[in-house]
Amino acid sequence: MPLTSPLPCRPPPRWLALWSLGLCLTWSLALAEPLAESLLMSSDDSATAAAPADRRPVAEPTAPAPPPGLAGTVDPAPPDAPAATTLPELAPAPATGPALATAAPAPADADDAAAAADLAAALAALTDRSFAVKEQAVADLAASGDPRAADLLKALLGGDLQARASDDRVVLTRRHGDGFALTDPLTGSDLGQVGRREVKRIVVNNRMRTALRAGIARLTLASPDPALRLRAAQETLTAPDPDSAAAMRERLPVEDDAQVRVLLQLGIGVADLGDPEPAVRLEGIAALAGSLQRPARNALRTLLASETDAEVRAAAQAALADIERLIEWNRHAQTLFFGLSLGSVLVLAAIGLAISFGVMGVINMAHGELIMLGAYTTYLVQGLLPNAIDWSLLVALPAAFIVSGVVGIVIEQTVIRFLYGRPLETLLATFGISLILQQAVRTLVSAQNVAVSSPTWMSGSLQINPVLSLTYNRIYILLFALAVFAVLLLILRRTALGLQVRAVAQNRAMARAMGVRSARVDALTFGLGAGIAGVAGVALSQLTNVGPNMGQAYIIDSFMVVVFGGVGNLWGTLVGGMTLGVANKLMEPWTGAVLAKILVLVLIILFIQKRPRGLFPQRGRAADA
Amino acid sequence: MGLLRSMKGDTGGLVLLAVLALVAILVPVLNLAVPADNPWHVSTFTVTLLGKYLTYALLALAVDLVWGYLGILSLGHGAFFALGGYAMGMYLMRQIGERGVYGHPVLPDFMVFLNYTELPWFWHGFDQFWFAALMVVLVPGLLAFVFGWLAFRSRVTGVYLSIITQALTYALMLAFFRNEMGFGGNNGLTDFKDILGFDLTARTTRVALFVISALMLAMAYLACRAIVTSRLGRVAVAIRDAEPRVRFIGYRVDRVKLALFTFSAMLAGIAGALYVPQVGIINPGEFAPLNSIELVIWVAIGGRATLYGAVIGAVLVNYGKTWFTGVFPEAWLFALGGLFVLVTLLLPKGIAGLAGQMRNLRRRRGEPTAPLPDTATEATP
């Protein structure tokens, strides 16, 4: 007899190919351009995020002048740690002033000593009564190029740099109770505590302030560390002033980091918008066009509010509209991503069901509980490996596959085996099993949700551009869902088990006549479907709460996916899940989450009327069974 | 009389009706006439509990009509039950009037709380009992009609139908959980005071509701029995066993299904309407898919396609539930789950079929008793 294969091995229909192609295209179009940039950005971004830790190495290989361990950055308002927040690697505890002091002069050479002496001299000059002398001191500090100088200037600007009354020594002060805790501004060593009146303010006038800001901007923008420069550029961009603009103009020609260059250009553009000359303002607008940075938008808006020149107005409006369109696109890309992410969750949850429901005609209402078992396996594995959370998921995946798979095989052997050909009764029996599994977890573990931790490599997000960021856990789960799908497809198409599964599903009697042990194939198929549910549970434990009821949340959705996609067709499950996910997320902005879900359910109900056997119906003899 | 003829040969049904009549007389007497310290006294709490079981029995009857005789496994009958309950709840809400916490003459408490300024349009008319009573039947009936018309016309059958009925009740649950729907959201409708002027907390009202539930159940039983013994009923059974053949013979299968499905939904609505005043609350939890599946198991346990089996199953399982949740609350889900499995595996005909199964077993002793691979319902044309 001709085998009209109704099974997952059937190549996907042409419009499916088109659909997925379209999906890929829109996706890649939306992402391709910023993606390359994003890869750069993400790595650098994590560097900026970890900046406090990274400040230490600043001085190490790249900076020739200062001794390592002395790149003492001083926050304007440091918390309770000593002002020298950055310590050499050898001194982990913050309160080790002496150690730092001894470590400091160790690798000094002639140049170094000279630079240190210059700095010290400039600092000493700050206590002078004459503003002219102080200005010169500030200029000297700014010109020194020493990484510490920027922080000293910041401290001076913030009023944290004061002079000790007893000996006029310039010290770094930090409020401590009623008085001040003093540290040496250059070495960071602890100089004890003094009362409030034992230090003298270093008075700063407006001209000095301007010089200070310009100096700070110049110094940080010239920092040898690109991450620091990036941060400085971002800071000056969010709080622009003419001095920093000058510093940026100065820096731009010599800057070699692409990202910093972009920010510098933006900063100059923002500054240009304030220029009295319309032509310069136009130039500024051109520099800002197409940027997704918030300051760029804000600057354009402020310009529009006060602009009188018609040409400039038009240009600014066009640029703003352009930016907003770009943002809109990115928002669409994000919605699409959320949709695909939700879709991947649905596919993960449904794909095991698609096997047992589609291939074997068995309604497994306990499927959600098999997912739950997988999630609890993750929890238990993490409990057993408390020190290796990063690796726990890799251990949990096979463990969950085995746990759920074995439970699945036990269910098949003890219950479902006796109910083949009675799908409605399988539904009831497996529902009973789901209740038992739920209660078992409630009794054995806890009725409360349990906490499953995320490995570090799954936390955080991929910052594609200032308005679009994708969380890593969703990206990984999307990829994981596709991988599971591919593996399953391979198993069904390329392995002996897959062949037997398809044979039994197509024609049980004929397969048995050919020597296929159908009972064994049934058990293994069900075990496979259950195992995949367990694996899905591992993935879902990273996205949602893990509790005894989590399975119920997925069972209805999974059935919708399978029924929508068409029973007995893995491709249908993939397309169905992704479509439902995207549809859900597309509707959410208009309707809210709950109503979107309701609408999707109603749409599925209506869709089933139109195509009672789903998107990809089974054809041929097997469809009638 | 047609009714009498329809009961001929239905021993189980006759016993059931007799027991119902006995209970409907005995329980009120034992509650109202026997003093509270007498061991024979039936407390008002028990009366209400029994009344609740009877409404569940009515609901199970509705499910048995479509599942047992038509082969439609509806996993959404809880939705019709809850809709009937909400219609009744809305009437009871309007009866509260100024006695609510906020004392608003027209708006129920939750609306005042949610800053409604006027009654939503769909709440109008529910201050009249006749209107509410009409809605109890019409709303579930209409929903079932529209849903069934769509589903049966396009020949959605079997598992697919079960799943979309489940989707229906799930969607309704999500919808009713929303505060914006104007049905009290999460909290549902509660704090009822009186019905038709009778105090709901009064003992006599409770007893009256119980008696009405018993009467309703008896009438519904007779009606269902009349249907299944009629020609319509026989076509229904034929559809259950071999739908394509019935279609080929020339019957309009979708119309038969639609008629019975709608009727069944109306019965479920009535059950819900009787349930709400006795329990005193209706909330979106009643739409939960779990409830709908659970009530299918009542029918399965009692024995499907017998009608009286559904009643037995509903009462027994719910009594078990009350008992278990009182004594071993932990074990109830184990027991229920175990029941699902055991009944489907060992008692395909339920308790009502137990006697017959025993007889068969004795007769066929020696023959292999392995479960059959395929049953008639799954036969291919």
Query: What is the correct CATH architecture of the largest domain in chain A?
Result: Orthogonal Bundle
The profile of the biggest β sheet of chain B is: 2 strands, antiparallel
What is the average of the pLDDT values of chain B? 87
The stretches of 5 or more residues of chain A where confidence is low (pLDDT under 50) are 1-10, 27-108
Task: Give the helix/strand class of chain B.
Answer: mainly alpha
Please count the beta strands of chain A (DSSP E, at least 2 residues each).
7
The succession of helices and strands of chain B, N to C, reads: HHHHHHHEEEHHHHEHHHH
Q: What is the average per-residue confidence, as pLDDT of chain A, rounded to a whole number? A: 76
The parts of chain B where pLDDT drops under 50 for at least 5 residues are 368-381
Cα-to-Cα separation, first versus last residue of chain A: 17 Å
Helix fraction bin of chain B? 55-70%
Shape verdict of chain B: globular
Order of SSEs of chain A: HHHHHHEEEEEHHHHHHHHHHEEHHHHHHH
Q: What is the C-level CATH assignment of the largest domain in chain A? A: Mainly Alpha
Percent range of helical residues of chain A = 55-70%
Give the total of domains of chain B.
1
Oligomeric state of this protein: heterodimer
The two chains with the largest interface, and their residue counts, are: A-B, 47 and 53 residues
Number of strands of chain B: 4
How would you sum up this structure, described in words?
The complex is a heterodimer of chains A (625) and B (381). Chain A has helices at residues 14-49, 51-58, 97-103, 110-125, 131-144, 147-157, 206-221, 226-238, 242-251, 258-273, 278-288, 294-306, 310-359, 367-384, 389-414, 423-444, 472-494, 496-506, 508-513, 518-540, 550-565, 570-591, 593-610; strands at residues 161-164, 170-176, 179-183, 190-194, 199-201, 461-465, 468-471. Chain A has a five-stranded antiparallel sheet with strand order 4-3-2-1-5. Chain A is mostly helical and 625 residues long. In chain A, 46% of the residues are buried. Chain A has 23 helices and seven strands. Chain B is mostly helical and 381 residues long. Chain B has one domain (2-378). Chain B is 67% helix and 2% strand. Chain B is built from 15 helices and four strands. Chain B has helices at 2-7, 11-32, 44-70, 77-96, 109-113, 129-153, 158-177, 203-229, 231-241, 243-249, 253-279, 289-302, 308-327, 332-346, 354-363; strands at 189-190, 194-195, 198-199, 281-282. In chain B, helix 3 runs antiparallel to helix 11. The interface between A and B is large, with 47 and 53 residues.
